[in-house]
Amino acid sequence: MKTKILTILKEAGGFVSGQDLCGRLGVSRTAVWKVMKQLEEEGYKIEAVRNKGYRLIQVADVITEAEVGSQMNSKWMGRNLVYLPVTDSTNIQAAKLAREGAPEGTLVVAESQMAGKGRRGRSWSSPPGSSIYMSFLLRPDIPPYCASMITLLAGMAGAKAVCQVAGLQALIKWPNDLVINGKKICGILTEMSTEMERIHYIVTGIGINVNQQEFPEEIRDKSTSLWLEGGKRVNRSQLIAAVMEWFETYFEQFLETNDLSNLKEEYEEMLANQNREVLVLDPAGYYKGICRGIDKDGELLVELPDGQIRPVLAGEVSVRGVYGYV
């Protein structure tokens, strides 16, 4: 009911009578009043005037089921929403829900993580109150080798959502980071449960630095936030909803071909390393080349000094700029 009341207040833009709310929701005035008090305790500013009703004056910067749900405009992504104030890892929880039969599109969001993780087993710093920690569940009927492309779709969705909500241009550092002005603002981790020819489920986790005003010294030179880049607070729940809406759009295009044929050109427009020199950190040996985009399977195309084009698989390979992180 809280989600429905928030949605009604936001859409109204002015006063909504208590009687109207009771009639639309089929509840008592006391029940409506209790929800308004709960919202105020969470940080929302609500004006109550006799004979006029309730008016939402200021939205709280909170990540709750009601707030995220009231922002959601997607058709199916994120519609089954699980909010956790504190958790070990949203990826862990999404995988647990997958094993319990949760539907495709299930979204897990948390205010804080105790065991956040990144690519190749790295830890992911997850302090409360300023970032986004979210994971979503997919059950696509695609071959297992196609799963790595989900990370690229998530990167595109994140970049579009940041532009839409924060007004900032984020670029993709292939395969799983978003950067602004050469510094990281987002990391993406995709995991799956699979058999030889069949995917049971895929879980993709996204962590976004949103309203941090400072970082530890050891990562300050390569990490940033939307606040630091744009100079203003960004509504995290609105950003989560935008990511879901954009991912849904890109995922449905992906399923038409089970590859990135429909999205390759748009992806390359967002690619931070496009036509720039990169350093490929391959366990078999490091080498340099010029990034020439991606192929339809999401592999990075690197032009070697002799003109040969070498496709790079995500896996255990890292790609960096020759003179810095990007």
Strand-helix topology:
Blueprint: H1 2-12, H2 18-25, H3 29-41, E1 45-49, E2 53-58, H4 65-71, E3 81-87, H5 90-99, E4 107-113, E5 131-138, H6 148-166, E6 171-173, E7 177-180, E8 183-194, E9 199-209, H7 226-230, H8 236-255, H9 264-270, E10 277-282, E11 285-294, E12 300-303, E13 309-312, E14 318-321
Parallel strand pairs: 3-4
Antiparallel strand pairs: 1-2, 4-5, 5-9, 6-7, 7-8, 8-9, 10-11, 10-14, 11-12, 12-13
Helix pairs in contact: 1-4, 4-8, 6-8
Helix content: 25-40%
Shape call: elongated
Q: Determine the N-to-C terminus distance.
A: 45 Å
Number of strands: 14
Strand content: 25-35%
Order of helices and strands: HHHEEHEHEEHEEEEHHHEEEEE
Question: Roughly how many Å is the radius of gyration?
Answer: 21 Å
Integer average pLDDT: 91
Structure, briefly:
By secondary structure, this protein is of the alpha+beta class. The chain has 9 helices and 14 strands.
Structure keywords:
326 residues, alpha+beta, seven-stranded mixed beta sheet, five-stranded antiparallel beta sheet, 14 strands, 28% strand, elongated
Description:
This protein is α+β, with helices and mostly antiparallel strands. Helices cover 31% and strands 28% of the residues. The chain is built from nine helices and 14 strands. The protein has helices spanning 2-12, 18-25, 29-41, 65-71, 90-99, 148-166, 226-230, 236-255, 264-270, and strands spanning 45-49, 53-58, 81-87, 107-113, 131-138, 171-173, 177-180, 183-194, 199-209, 277-282, 285-294, 300-303, 309-312, 318-321. A seven-stranded mixed β-sheet has the order 3-4-5-9-8-7-6, sandwiched between helices. The chain has a five-stranded antiparallel β-sheet with strand order 13-12-11-10-14. Helix 1 packs across helix 4 and helix 4 (65-71) crosses helix 8 (236-255). The protein is elongated. It starts with a helix and ends in a 5-residue tail after the last strand.
